[in-house]
Amino acid sequence: MKAVTLAAVDEVALRDVPEPRIEQPTDAVIRLRAGAICGSDLHVYHGQMGAMEKDYPIGHEYVGVVEEVGPLVRGFRPGMRVGGSFFSACGECDACRRRQFTQCREIQLFGFGARFGDLAGSQAERVRVPHADHTLIALPDEISDEQGLFLGDALTTAYFGVKRADIEPGMTVAVVGCGPVGQLAVECAQVFGAARVIALDLVPQRLAQAEEIGAVPVLADDDAAKRVRALTGGRGADAVGEGGGSEATLNLSLRLAAWFATVSAIGVFPQPSVPILIGRAFGRDLTVRAGMANIQAEAAATCELVRAGRLPPERLVTHRMPLEDAPQAYALFARREAGKVILNA
């Protein structure tokens, strides 16, 4: 079986790896139709997620067809078209029973190596899915493969992060970092009732994309906070979604926030800690939230929003490439010369 693996820092390769198989009675094996490159895959690509074996399949955004299921899988059968969460959850532990799936005691992340559960990734021809009933997402006929790719991570991550920003109708919302997840966060903020969304990034093309969907573009340079205050009568943003996953984007988010605002960190931070402007947060009574997206609890909502045409994530796809072109695809994405890149298996 062919799979995309990390060959070296800033280099991936398509390699032959062992075929996945049913290992537990709750497993499924999926034949992949397509995968996508996510911003957090770049942390693996740049060697920021710890040591990984060179033949370890990476990737975690996927859509495919069920090929085989274990004897205890109840909700899926061979031939079903599915997407799936970027992590598996058992559905039975205390956290899962509370629908807090990211805290599952058996959580495994696809494609991030031994440090995150040792689960092979989905940029491959096939993938094993543990706890299939609580990890896979059945795709309705109205949802295309490209739309389905977004449900298990990018779109639902944006939705979850924006939801936790405590947006109320009429608010002004800022989104810092407008890669694919940030672009989706702009649209999700509008769904939650934001009267105005201010989009901040350093890449002009990303700002232009955000402006096309109704956001106010602001260059995320040293004067960004001043510009946002000017746009909001000196108050700042009522809620902020941080989509960059860095010290710079998090602290800019804190500087943009109005008093009693919520800053919701949507981006993935590869480092274990970053200095933050705690005095700013304390002085303005800010709430700061961070955490992995609770995909299993939110995917039904994002699926319906896509099906109804409210959130069309496929607009972000700029490149469609075969799996064997993964090295070029990753290099393109790392240079910020692509939006969402799809790898067709």
Mind sketching the topology for me?
Elements: E1 2-8, E2 11-16, E3 28-37, H1 39-45, E4 61-69, E5 81-84, E6 87-88, H2 94-97, E7 108-109, E8 126-129, H3 132-135, E9 136-138, H4 145-151, H5 154-163, E10 172-176, H6 180-191, E11 196-201, H7 204-212, E12 216-219, H8 224-231, E13 237-242, H9 247-256, E14 257-265, H10 278-283, E15 287-290, H11 295-307, E16 317-322, H12 326-334, E17 340-344
Parallel strand pairs: 10-11, 10-13, 11-12, 13-14, 14-15, 16-17
Antiparallel strand pairs: 1-2, 3-4, 3-8, 3-17, 4-5, 5-9, 6-7
Quick one: biggest sheet? Answer: 7 strands, mixed
Poorly predicted residue ranges: none
- Kindly, what is the distance between the CA atoms of the first and last residues, rounded to a whole number of angstroms? 11 Å
**Overall mean confidence score, pLDDT:** 96
What does this molecule look like?
- With 345 residues, the protein is an alpha/beta fold.
- It contains twelve helices and 17 strands.
- The protein has helices at residues 39-45, 94-97, 132-135, 145-151, 154-163, 180-191, 204-212, 224-231, 247-256, 278-283, 295-307, 326-334, and strands spanning 2-8, 11-16, 28-37, 61-69, 81-84, 87-88, 108-109, 126-129, 136-138, 172-176, 196-201, 216-219, 237-242, 257-265, 287-290, 317-322, 340-344.
- The strands form four sheets. Strands 3, 4, 5, 8, 9, 16 and 17 form a seven-stranded mixed sheet that branches. The chain has a six-stranded parallel sheet with strand order 12-11-10-13-14-15, with helices on both faces. Strands 1-2 form a two-stranded antiparallel ribbon.
